[in-house]
Design brief:
single chain; 675 residues; alpha/beta; Rossmann fold; seven-stranded parallel β-sheet; six-stranded mixed β-sheet; globular
């Protein structure tokens, strides 16, 4: 009986592969292929791995080898180019290959028995949708949009584009018409469109389906049921889906005929995974486009400084949309309300209250943006100074008044609101600060006849509730919308003419060097929700009112002028002078332990365990949120002006770290998003 050795990658935290024996017993006539899934024994359980090599012999003796249980040969193997992308991600982000390949496949695909996969494939074998790529009802483009579509559709080979368009400039229409051109030119071309958040997919999916009748569309995001996700993944893997829409995990979709990648809101931090494989979907998308020799479009009204730098240096080609797509639609007027002069009452200044009243009288919608959910960030005792600290974290417990609960947003600890101060017994405990729930309560008192809706993580916990809430706004059933960053981007509210921004000042003085970049992007995005239709006949414009105690801050000056170019250029120069990304490359080693001293000691040893020529090691320090769920956290930052030098060091460093005997839990993040 002939046998071969299958080298298989498994989803285990070990940077090794496992040899298994495959016996040709006559029942299986063909040799397994690279990229196929295989069911194998591992310890006392059975797991699914992926075949990465086929050999005649093994370094292990035959009596130590276990037999492959089954090869999933009814599924087309994952392609060499797909495996190459996973190898790159594993190497660049310093993770075992198995931890990259297996988790990005649908869970059901890794767990189902062979017959179940056969049934799923059978259901997909005759898709109802045809592959007619003709689009329907394309709106007329302005000159800038036409030029952008032409550039993307006619690009040859790898062509990275930065589509810089103001909010409401019609970037989505550029995406759709460029996609239509590419689909029409090739009978089997596939388009991958990435969005930063799940709640942005329904609106864009509806636009895609209404535009491309008869074209199979697949969606991939964590909100799908596992069976549904597997079926969508399979349509993409088999080439049946021509357009694939998804969040960051969709970058790992198997797409045999991929010819265009689009990354909407490319600046968004949500594209960076914060656990497990800490990858950047945006960066992997650019790498994948380069690997395949296809165009990639990065779209944003406020591009990341990394992308802006690439465009300024000529690495990316910049396409600009300077005008709003709807004729006679204008950018909203941005005005500052000095909170030192106009003292807020219940969080709302008199100027903002008057503006809300006017929009209500005119039958128009308003949006109040506050990126802080809950009722109040903390409750306190005026008598002794007690505050509602979390007992397990370096943070406060947030008051959720309607539930009469204190909740930590970091470790999820929940407690009932105390009837009196735990320290001195004072019964007069006061909420400090405001969250979306408290703003909602005060508005209901101030405008009792207004239809007020709050959209945040608390109000949209149930499946489908977020989409139902947004539908209600679009249908005109809401007068005042209160929301967090969930409402700040991607949504096209036709009747919204006023945006009020509450409490943005805290980010102005953050120790995170990215804070000002993110604040500007966030405010520009939320401001762009207003005035997306033609200006009214009376000439009145939409407006954005920002309540601030620092009206002279240069960030607000750039915001009022809608001048991202100057703001980004200034920030880039500051980064250059301070040797910060994108002018330096970083990796962050984080350590977690039961006490802070143990974590810092581990990092101190890690800093000196190997030579680091060409790499600067900063001192180990506690993280800003030092304790979470009674676990202490510290970090060590490694930097280099050379990416290859840093990568070579990290490869050796990770090997040395794995050899260190310690009970400390550590993780390494390449190109960290937060420091």
């Amino acid at each position: 009986m002939l046998h071969h050795i299958l080298q298989i990658a498994l989803d285990v935290p070990l940077d090794i592969f496992f040899d298994y024996r495959w016996l040709n017993d006559g029942k299986q006539s063909t040799l397994p292929k690279l990229g196929q899934l295989a069911l194998v024994p591992f310890g006392n359980r059975e797991v699914v791995g992926i075949i990465i090599a086929i050999k005649q012999t093994s370094d292990f003796s035959d009596d130590k080898l276990k037999d492959v249980i089954a090869v999933r040969d009814q599924l087309e193997p994952l392609s060499d180019t797909w495996m190459a992308m996973c190898h790159f991600a594993a190497g660049y982000y310093q993770r075992p290959l198995g931890e990259v390949v297996l988790p990005c496949l649908p869970k059901k695909l890794r767990e189902l028995k062979t017959v179940s996969i056969d049934r799923a494939l059978q259901k997909l074998s005759n898709p109802q949708a045809s592959q007619n790529a003709e689009s329907n009802g394309e709106p007329t483009l302005n000159i800038a949009q036409q030029q952008a579509v032409e550039a993307i559709a006619n690009a040859q080979g790898f062509a990275p584009f930065l589509l810089h368009g103001i909010t409401g400039s019609g970037k989505t229409e550029v995406y759709l018409q460029a996609a239509a051109r590419i689909l029409a030119a090739s009978s089997d071309a596939q388009i991958l469109i990435l969005v930063p958040e799940i709640n942005l997919t329904p609106q864009l999916e509806a636009s895609i389906r209404s535009r491309f009748h008869g074209v199979t569309v697949a969606t991939l995001h964590s909100g799908l049921a596992e069976v549904e996700r597997m079926r969508h993944w399979l349509t993409a893997h088999l080439g049946q889906a021509r357009i694939i829409l998804g969040t960051r995990l969709a970058i790992f979709a198997s797409l045999p005929k991929l010819e265009l990648i689009i990354i909407d809101e490319e600046h968004d931090p949500s594209y960076k995974q914060q656990e497990g494989l800490r990858y950047s979907a945006r960066d992997l998308a650019v790498w994948r486009a380069h690997q395949l020799g296809i165009p990639v479009v990065l779209g944003s009204a406020t591009p990341s400084l990394e992308s802006w730098h690439h465009a300024q240096s000529g690495r990316y080609r910049k396409l600009e949309l300077r005008d709003r797509a709807v004729q006679n639609a204008t950018l909203p007027a941005i005005k500052l309300i000095d909170m030192e002069r106009d003292k807020p009452i219940q969080g709302i200044t008199s100027a903002l209250a008057a503006a809300l009243k006017l929009r209500l009288e005119q039958g128009e919608q308003s949006l109040l943006f506050l990126n802080r959910r809950g009722y109040a960030p903390v409750i306190a005792c005026d008598a002794c100074g007690w505050v509602s600290n979390c007992t397990r974290c370096t943070s406060f417990m947030v008051l959720h008044k309607s539930e009469h609960r204190l909740r930590c947003h970091h470790c999820s600890l929940e407690l009932r609101v105390p009837r009196s101060c735990p320290t001195c017994g004072n019964i007069d405990l006061q909420p400090l600060g405001r969250g979306t729930q408290r703003v909602e309560e005060s508005l209901q008192l101030q405008f009792p006849d207004a239809r007020i809706l709050r959209i945040d993580a608390d109000s949209t916990r149930l499946k489908g509730s977020a989409q139902a809430a947004f539908d209600s706004v679009h249908q005109g059933n809401v007068d005042i919308l209160i929301g967090t960053q969930m409402v700040a981007k991607g949504h096209d509210f036709k009747n919204l003419t006023l945006v009020g921004i509450l409490n943005p000042d805290t980010a102005l003085f953050s120790q995170d060097y990215r804070a000002s970049e993110r604040l500007f992007a966030q405010l520009m995005q939320v401001a762009g929700r207003a005035g997306r239709v033609a200006q009214k006949e009376d000439g009145s414009a939409s407006e954005v009112l920002i309540q601030t105690r620092y009206p002279q801050h240069p960030l607000y000056s750039a915001l009022i002028a809608h001048d991202y170019d100057h703001f980004a250029t200034t920030l880039l120069e500051e980064r250059r002078q301070a040797d910060l990304p994108p002018f330096i490359y970083q990796a962050l080693l984080r350590a977690e332990a039961k006490d802070l001293e143990t974590a810092l000691d581990f990092l101190q040893q890690a800093a000196s365990c190997i030579e680091h020529q060409g790499v600067t090691m900063n001192d180990p320090i506690p993280t800003l949120m030092t304790r979470v769920a009674n676990v202490y956290r510290a970090q060590l930052l490694a930097e280099s002006i050379s990416r290859p030098t840093l990568q070579a060091f990290l490869t050796s460093w990770v090997e040395a770290l794995r050899g260190m005997k310690s009970r400390v839990k550590w993780t390494l993040e390449v190109d960290p998003a937060d420091i």
